[in-house]
Amino acid sequence: MTTIPGTSDNPYAGYGLGVQSPSRADSMGQADFLRLMTEQLKNQDPLKPLEGSQFLGQLAQFSTVQGIEQMNGAMGAMASVMENDQALRAAALVGHDALVDADGLTLAEGKGLSGEIVATSAGPLQVEIVDGAGQVVRRMDVEAGAAGAVPFAWDGRTDGGDAAPAGTYTVRARAGAGEDARALDVRVAAHIDSVSIEATGLVLNLAGLGSVPLSGIRRIG
């Protein structure tokens, strides 16, 4: 006797000819949204029909959400491109010197340093190189032709002509003398050993100074 299949959405299920339901996307597409809106219109309360403005408002909201999702995708792709470009540019900085808003760094024995003094006016400037113990190992005079950056260089030797030992050295600069003396800002040059791309941005790893964010760099080269 032939068995007649029972009532089912698939009349051939009893014969082993099951049909798999099509897979659905996790997110609602525009076609799905319009289908739901059509069903909403067909099944609405005749006494309280959906106004056209409500329908248009819902459609506009859906379009806005879709637009935001597409914009987020585009912004993510742009951010990835910018990050890759930043990495390539950062690699080109290695091996150069960077001028940093700092007044000192750690040096090897006999190793000097250079940088700039930010003069407030024209005139003579006094520069002192101070070791980690607070002792002045070298005094130099620099002439500022005008207000602005005035370069200086220390050869790594003490006032007596000996090579300064390894350690951390600080540069102090001032204009004037006695009660009229004014401390001035100092910038030092340091070698870029490597570059890191952190969550906060580009970071330069400088010899004798450590990690400095790109925003703290005055000049490279």
Name the features:
disordered N terminus, about 25% helix, 5-stranded antiparallel β-sheet, Immunoglobulin-like, elongated, 2 domains, single chain, about 220 residues
Describe the fold and architecture.
24% of the residues lie in helices and 35% in strands. With 221 residues, the protein is α+β, with helices and mostly antiparallel strands. Helix 1 runs antiparallel to helix 2. It is elongated and about 100 Å long. The N terminus is likely disordered.
Number of strands: 12
Distance between the termini: 94 Å
Radius of gyration: 36 Å
Low-confidence stretches: 1-8, 12-21
Q: Beta-sheet strand percentage? A: 35-45%
Query: What is the residue-averaged pLDDT?
Result: 78
Can you count the helices? Answer: 2
